[in-house]
Every structure is written in structure tokens, then in C-alpha cells.
UniProtKB/TrEMBL annotation:
Catalytic activity: L-proline + NAD(+) = (S)-1-pyrroline-5-carboxylate + NADH + 2 H(+); L-proline + NADP(+) = (S)-1-pyrroline-5-carboxylate + NADPH + 2 H(+)
Stretches assigned to the Pyrroline-5-carboxylate reductase catalytic N-terminal domain: 2-97
Localization per Swiss-Prot or TrEMBL: Cytoplasm
Organism of origin: Paenibacillus gansuensis
The keyword Aminoacyl-tRNA synthetase appears for this protein: no
Enzyme class per UniProt: oxidoreductase
Functional summary from the UniProt entry: Catalyzes the reduction of 1-pyrroline-5-carboxylate (PCA) to L-proline.
Name of the protein in its database record: Pyrroline-5-carboxylate reductase
Domain Pyrroline-5-carboxylate reductase dimerisation: 159-259
């Protein structure tokens, strides 16, 4: 089985490297292209056997599973470019939320899936969101999920919840890192604690909290309750956060969705534009 990647930017290269490093795929079974060829050449140099090629059409033609890891504005052009090389037996995976499965099905003959990864997959953690088109069989779905389970927890979601699921799973690491940064900034500013020490403590805390919420049997609510000694310090600070962050997360979701719908409209315009 050959797995191909068109686009080896941030997310394409994370998928490639984590699939190799987890042992899920041998480099000899992978082929990739990228607009800036030097990016994909770096992967070829790092992983002997990995095949870097100049042509998207060659990647499309040689792959049993083809990951399209370009940005929404590049999808139509790439889809048009490779459509002659994609046949009905191939699995084609888009990793971007605003491109609808039906749009890809309208151009490409392959079996279409949308898989939204997360930077957390780089350390074989976090989810990959799985959304399937009508052509992809249950066996294909199992094949894909078996592959992805080497680097993540594949979770099926309805296409209508792709954006909000991606906010939690794929944008979430950036939001949480922002929280950590602000927490550390304040700790350094207010107390003079060395920054490195504060970052290390906060990072270990995030890791442990993730474990408590996944395998530790805690919910977000029960975890807060357990840490908050009645009448104690955490309780006071949680109250402050609750008051000051009133409505912030609703606005955050409104913001991601409004940008998403802008992108959906732009992609729609591309797919309905004359070729
Ligand atoms: N960065 C993240 O954490 C996540 C990103 N995504 C999605 O993945 C998609 C890609 O994002 P990134 O990897 O972060 O972007 P990126 O800009 O780092 O990578 C895109 C790559 O596509 C290449 N490219 C552009 N046009 C091309 C063409 N015609 N042929 C071949 N290669 C071409 C570019 O040279 C670039 O290397 C986006 O749609 C994003 O929404 C999804 C989940 C998480
Ligand atoms: O910022 C972005 O557009 C992408 C979507 C999910 C994570 N990063």
C-alpha cells in the first residue's frame, strides 16, 4: 500500500513524520509533493526511502490513500490538476474543514473522506476527526482509522459539527498554550519566578490534567470540585475566572465559525467558478 501527500507544510509534515515515527508506515511506502520542493526534499533526506516528487499528478496516480494537505484556497486548483490521475478505487482524504465532501466528490472519482488532524498527533496524542462521504466503504473507513490510530484517537463526527469539533481538537492546543503563556507571564511578572521553571510546572500540569480527564475518571466539573478545598484558594481564583471570562468562549466559537463560513463561501465560489 502506498500513501501519498500533496502539501508538506505544517500539518502534512506532522502527519508524515508521526506516521513514520510511530512505525505505522515505512518511508518506502510514502510519496509526497509540495509547491516549494525544498520542503519535501528535507523529508526525503531525513527518512531514507521516502519519495519526494515534483508532480502532484504523480503523487495522485501512485497512491492508494492520498492526503490533500493544502489550504482551502488551493483545493480547487489541486483537485482539477489531479483529477485525471485519481480513480474510483483510491481513498482521497482532505484535512481541511471548509472544503465540503460533496465538492471533492464533484471533481474527483475517488472515495472521499475528511480527516481533521491536530498538532497533538505529532506526539501520538489527541484526536483525528473522521467524516466520510457516501462512496467510502465501511472497510475503507476501518483501514483509515487503523492507520490513524497509530498517531491519535480517531473519532467520527457529523460534517455539520466539523468546525466546532475542530475548534476543540485542532485549534484547542493553541488556545490552551495561550492560557499557559498568560498564566506564566503573570507568574513571572508578579513574583519573579524563573520563566523556565514556571513553563515546566505549567506544562506538567497540563499533561497531568489531560490524563485525569481521559483516563483518570474526572470530568471538567468534578476535577474543579476536587481541587477546590471549600473556603480555600482555588475556589476564590475560579470565581474570578468565571466572572471575568463570562461569554468569552461563546465569542470565541462565534469568531471561529464566522471565519469558517467566510472560507466556506470562498471555496464554494471556487468550485462553482468556471474552470
Ligand atoms: N496547522 C494545524 O494545526 C492544522 C491545520 N489543518 C488544516 O490543514 C491545512 C494545511 O494547513 P498547514 O499545514 O498548517 O498549512 P501550511 O501552509 O503549513 O501547508 C500547506 C502546504 O501546501 C503547499 N501547497 C500549496 N499549494 C500547493 C499546490 N498547488 N501543490 C502542492 N503543494 C501546495 C504549500 O507549499 C505548503 O507547504 C489547512 O487547511 C488547515 O486548516 C487541520 C488541522 C490542524
Ligand atoms: O488555524 C487554522 O485555520 C487551522 C484549523 C485547525 C487548526 N488550525
Amino acid at each position: 500500500m502506498k500513501v501519498g501527500f500533496i502539501g508538506t507544510g505544517s500539518m502534512g509534515s506532522i502527519l508524515i513524520e508521526s506516521l513514520i515515527q510511530s512505525g505505522a508506515l515505512q518511508p518506502e511506502h510514502m510519496i509526497a509533493s509540495n509547491r516549494t520542493f525544498s520542503k519535501v526534499e528535507l523529508l526525503e533526506a531525513k527518512y531514507p526511502g521516502f519519495q519526494a516528487v515534483q508532480s502532484n499528478v504523480q503523487v495522485a496516480g501512485d497512491s492508494d490513500i492520498l492526503f490533500l494537505c493544502v489550504k482551502p484556497k488551493e483545493f480547487r486548483q489541486v483537485a482539477e490538476e489531479i483529477k485525471g490521475a485519481v480513480c474510483a478505487e483510491q481513498i482521497v482524504v482532505s484535512i481541511t474543514s471548509p472544503v465540503q465532501i460533496k465538492q471533492l466528490e464533484s471533481v474527483l472519482k475517488g472515495k472521499i473522506a475528511k480527516i481533521i488532524p491536530s498538532i497533538t498527533n505529532y506526539v501520538c496524542s489527541g484526536a483525528t476527526l473522521c467524516i466520510y462521504g457516501d462512496r467510502i466503504t465501511p472497510e475503507d473507513q476501518i483501514l483509515l482509522e487503523r492507520l490513524l490510530s497509530n498517531i491519535s484517537l480517531p473519532i467520527r463526527v457529523a460534517e455539520e459539527y466539523t468546525r466546532v469539533s475542530s475548534d476543540l481538537s485542532s485549534c484547542g492546543p493553541a488556545f490552551l498554550a495561550f492560557f499557559v503563556q498568560k498564566f506564566v507571564d503573570a507568574a513571572v511578572e508578579q513574583t519573579g519566578i524563573p520563566r523556565e521553571e514556571a513553563v515546566r510546572l505549567a506544562a506538567e500540569m497540563v499533561l497531568g490534567t489531560g490524563k485525569l480527564l481521559t483516563v483518570g475518571g474526572f470530568s471538567p466539573e468534578s476535577l474543579q470540585k476536587r481541587v477546590s478545598v471549600p473556603g480555600g484558594i482555588t475556589e476564590e481564583a475560579l470565581h474570578l475566572l468565571d466572572v471575568r471570562l463570562q461569554g468569552v468562549f461563546n465569542e470565541l466559537i462565534e469568531t471561529t465559525h464566522s471565519k469558517f463560513f467566510e472560507d466556506v463561501d470562498k471555496v464554494e465560489a471556487q468550485f462553482y467558478a468556471p474552470k
